[in-house]
């Protein structure tokens, strides 16, 4: 990637009431990236974020931050020095910001009062705090609500204020837990747009989300957590190359008699091994899309179907995640049978 490592997670483990939630998780976070963490409910995503932010002390492992790059950014050739976030909590608190899944601001304070209160927790001068408040009101589209009470805000404004409170001290790393949960598609897009703006300002972002299609489009790299273990961490393109295997041909035609097209294409010994009808689209799965496209165009002509749109791509992150989960499930069943 060519970016410096800013955080190191080393063999982190965490248990609650003898239930091991995190199991020896290790990875690195690169400066300036948006790292998305995905996994099924209960996989350990939130626990991992809390361990990275220092809110939870793991019984095993370590989280380290790059001390020198925060102390003097003018040093072009400084030697990386990594410190434990648990041994230097006050210093690390100034480096990261955190916004949880549920709002953590005060409902009886106005938007500006909340920002000023959270800013007072850090050693900011009055001038710096005043400047940060105004910058965040503009950045998060909260200027019109600056005098509104926290308890009177809409769901989208609540989320924006929560993120603003986490950014009030201008941290190097922003950690977000499900930033778009319980929001409608329009508000989710707005939040993602803001996340991108924050990232372009130089902030490294680590977030957990269950909206896989959004993670797919906005995150630099994707970490997949399953039952407390890190099973994959890479860019989407590399994950697709490694796990998707087949490619998909997505077709739209008129009048769209997809059942008939599917019967004509799915034949013994053919290059199409699966076909799905998804709304107004016919999706073909194949390891040889060039041959299938040739057969498809010939079939459409023979059936009097007018081609509206066709594209070749690999499956999206949601399908990839399901495929990996099924593969892991079948592997577990085989392992269990082997032990019997």
Please write out the topology.
Elements: E1 5-16, E2 19-30, E3 34-38, H1 45-53, E4 60-66, H2 67-71, E5 82-84, H3 89-93, E6 96-99, H4 111-120, H5 126-139, H6 155-167, E7 173-177, H7 185-200, E8 204-208, H8 212-218, E9 221-226, E10 229-234, H9 236-243, E11 247-254, H10 258-265, E12 272-278, E13 281-286, H11 289-303, E14 306-313, H12 317-339
Parallel strand pairs: 3-8, 3-9, 6-7, 7-8
Antiparallel strand pairs: 1-2, 1-4, 4-5, 9-10, 11-13, 11-14, 12-13
How would you describe this structure to a colleague?
The protein has 340 residues and is an alpha/beta fold. It contains 12 helices and 14 strands. The mean pLDDT is 87. The radius of gyration is 24 Å and the shape is globular. It starts with a strand and ends with a helix. It has 2 domains: 5-240, 3-Layer(aba) Sandwich (Rossmann fold), CATH 3.40.50; 246-313, 2-Layer Sandwich (Alpha-Beta Plaits), CATH 3.30.70.100. The strands form 3 sheets. A 6-stranded mixed β-sheet has the order 6-7-8-3-9-10, with helices on both faces. Strands 2-1-4-5 form a 4-stranded antiparallel β-sheet. The longest helix has 23 residues, at 317-339.
